[in-house]
Amino acid sequence: MRKKLSLMAPSLIFFFSLCFTLCFAGNVSYDSRSLIINGERKLLISAAIHYPRSVPAMWPELVKTAKEGGVDVIETYVFWNVHQPTSPSEYHFDGRFDLVKFIKIVQGAGMYLILRIGPFVAAEWNFGGIPVWLHYVNGTVFRTDNYNFKYYMEEFTTYIVNLMKKEKLFASQGGPIILSQVENEYGFYEGAYGEGGKRYAAWAAQMAVSQNTGVPWIMCQQFDAPPSVINTCNSFYCDQFKPIFPDKPKIWTENWPGWFQTFGAPNPHRPAEDVAFSVARFFQKGGSVQNYYMYHGGTNFGRTAGGPFITTSYDYEAPIDEYGLPRLPKWGHLKELHKAIKLCEHVVLNSKPVNLSLGPSHEADIYADASGGCVAFLANMDDKNDKTVEFRNVSYKLPAWSISILPDCKNVVYNTAKVTSQTALVEMVPDNLQQEGGSKAIKWEVFVEKAGIWGEPDFMKNSFVDHINTTKDTTDYLWYTTSIVVGENEEFLKEGRHPVLLIESMGHALHAFVNQELQGSASGNGTHSPFTFKNPISLKAGRNEIALLSMTVGLQNAGSFYEWVGAGLTSVKIKGFNNGTVDLSHFNWIYKIGLQGEKLGIYKPEGVNSVSWVATSEPPKKQPLTWYKAVLDPPAGNEPVGLDMLHMGKGLAWLNGEEIGRYWPRKSSALGKCVTECDYRGKFMPDKCLTGCGQPTQRWYHVPRSWFKPSGNLLVIFEEKGGDPEKITFARRKTSQHMFSHCRGLSLSRSKIIAGSWKQELQYQGICPSGVPPKMALYQL
């Protein structure tokens, strides 16, 4: 048959390929052991890839890399607020929001898809994925038994389901979608809503099932899910999870192979060995579907990051990095795990396990089917000590915190702690900005915003307003401005002292200007949004203009009643007058929403000439409220590209009108909490293996290659507080994937994080030559 197939006409081969991708799905059912697709039981490895966090040009390669990594299923949320950003009457599915195109790419690769419609998603995404406009529909309360919320939630869910049906994308229609999800991790918050929460959860399940998709619905972390849906687990470890009802399979919707980042915090790392341990343990204990959240995290382009304070990068230390490259050895180590699990699939799905104790923290789970097949998982849960165990009269050495997989109950094909896959070094190679035409002398042009009210005021009030309720998230920026008259007899004028400006804010960040001069900045952080600003300021005799630029850094994305969490100023005082402290809180405040450059769209090619730019060969440094633009050639080569903003302050960036996102090379202040090596042994938590203390949380900002034109690329930067634009560079992300290809068989008790120390360990063991340069890159865990 192989010989005949090789002689078939290309058109016939294409037909068979097409049939495979279009006809592979059909009936999806389940029992207590697994999903059953077209009558066949499946152990499924799933990978979360969110379509808005990459670009269409990346999607085919991302899906291909996932499939090559041994993945069966792609999972994605549906992001309500990108499809209905401004009103319930308009839908958007263009560009990176083209959900149908993304799913069809998955289908074309012959893979399944899990569609998590939500439509609340959390996901460190702005406002949890719910459109901001819905908060301002009178009487609306999110995620409870509230008429307005349920009405719009059902309307959107039905629209998405009908779109999938129209395109024949559910498995029941021959498409790739085998599971759908409604709501998201509601069990954590349901109690805060009382009986209304219980009614809402039951309604959400009923509403979803009534859509008649022909595939099962799931609800993750829903502790009172009704029997019409499958409740699932989200955690770093889900081996002990049990579904509510005995007829449901054990599904893990979110296994976190890393963690998200917030501006100003160190970077978390989860070792590949521990990720593999968690997955092997899940399948050892009867798991059926396991999904990596994330497998490719991608980028929070524009203002889509939530939190607040979530970084523009959503790399998540996932098996495929933010730029679309395999993260080695994590990607490779998990690929080998997936191969081992698939060798066991038939036996473990068609037999019941027998548990055998091999010691105090050591055990075997043995699966044996009627045909004589046998699979064993040998586990060492001791988080400190290696152990040699006896199993069926054979000795097996088990490293601490590891599992060995024996697909024939004899031979170990994989151990979770033994990383034998290829490793890589990654570096961001600087590529200086090239002026259009190849000149290295960049011709920057600048436009400076006025500190305070530009154009006509939006309104005036003798009190403070909530930032978010005022901007409705159309912008990060809101100006609060007032004035104060200083008498000539004030002692601080005579003595050359500076009064102190005291500001209390609910969040998220602030720049304070007096008489058009920046006096200082302050902000909250990823764990506490409110902050206090306390800074000496320069006042003159006579009238002084106080202009305070309040900023959001992504909206709250989860929590009970999270939509009511506010931002902005609550108190402004000046300390140091002859009569004591002056409270400005009830002065006449004049408000302006957003920036002039934003309003005019000067970051877009069609709006760039709306203001008068000033050309300069030496752009101003450390100057706040400044727009910079340059026309550039693309970086050389075809590697992924990042924008190096190390020497800038805080702001926004665009290329050819596309939103690169917020930049903020804010340094981590968590000194003393970081490590130089990470022990994979023992349960992982996000603060276990931190790096980057005293360094910017995010230095490089992903600029997709598909956004570049052959020439004439418009780069626009808005800098809030001042930086050095001459030091902005592109960087090409390069991997040396074969650098240590001869270092196979490596098994360390600790994963080295810093490249230099890891290199030294390899050299010490005689595994790799001393001439291998560590560069500046991380060993990718």
UniProtKB/TrEMBL annotation:
Main location group: secreted
Domain Glycoside hydrolase 35 catalytic residue range list: 34-340
Keywords: Apoplast, Glycoprotein, Glycosidase, Hydrolase, Secreted, Signal
InterPro entries tied to this protein: BetaGal_gal-bd, Galactose-bd-like_sf, GH, GHD, Gly_Hdrlase_35_cat, Glyco_hydro_35_CS, Glycoside_Hdrlase_35
Reactions catalysed according to its record: Hydrolysis of terminal non-reducing beta-D-galactose residues in beta-D-galactosides
Enzyme nomenclature, EC number: 3.2.1.23
Signal peptide: 1-25
GO molecular function annotation: beta-galactosidase activity
Single Gene Ontology BP annotation: carbohydrate metabolic process
Subcellular location: Secreted, Extracellular space, Apoplast
Record-level GO cellular component terms: apoplast
Residues in Beta-galactosidase galactose-binding domain copies: 625-713
Pfam families: BetaGal_gal-bd, GHD, Glyco_hydro_35
Residue ranges of domain Beta-galactosidase beta-sandwich in the record: 364-419
Top EC class for this record: hydrolase
Family affiliation: Belongs to the glycosyl hydrolase 35 family.
The name this protein goes by in its record: Beta-galactosidase
